[in-house]
Each structure stands twice: as C-alpha cells, then as structure tokens.
C-alpha cells in the first residue's frame, strides 16, 4: 500500500522503522532510511538511529543542488 502511494507521488526519500516496508519499496524509492536502533540491516538501506541522523542523511543527498548548498 505504501508502494502505491510512493509511486503515485514520486517519492524519492522514505524513512521507516520496518524492514518489510523497505523491502516493498526497494526497487521503487531510491533513498531508503531504516529508522531506530538496529544491529544488522541490509547494505542497500541507510541506518538512521535518530531524526537528526535522518535529516543529515537526507540533506546530504541534495548536496550540490540549489536547495542543498551550504548545508
């Protein structure tokens, strides 16, 4: 269901704490962030233990674009 919404909206970044959700979005959303404390996550996910980490990781993907310069 989240995959349908992401496809309709053209979502490029997605944060969730559930591995199963990310597996459904793996080939659809280019930037996936696994939120919360984790021991092992697949290499295709970016682990973000806090909202600050999530913000920094997402912002870093915009480096070099007008919206991301100076961040």
Low-pLDDT residue intervals, each spanning 5 or more residues: 67-71
Q: Can you count the beta strands?
A: 3
Radius of gyration: 13 Å
Number of helices: 3
Task: Report on the biggest sheet.
Answer: 3 strands, parallel
Separation, N- and C-terminal Cα atoms: 33 Å
Average of the residue pLDDT scores: 88
What order do the SSEs take from the amino end to the carboxyl end, as H and E?
HEHEEH
Shape: globular
* Helix content range: 25-40%
- Portion in strands: 15-25%
- The largest beta-sheet arranges its strands as 1-2-3
Describe the structure.
Helix 2 links the parallel strand 1 (13-16) and strand 2. Strands 1-2-3 form a three-stranded parallel β-sheet, sandwiched between helices. It has three helices and three strands. By secondary structure, the chain is of the alpha/beta class. The protein has helices at residues 2-9, 19-25, 51-60, and strands at 13-16, 31-35, 46-48. The longest helix is centred in the C-terminal third of the chain and has 10 residues, at 51-60. It is 35% helix and 17% strand.
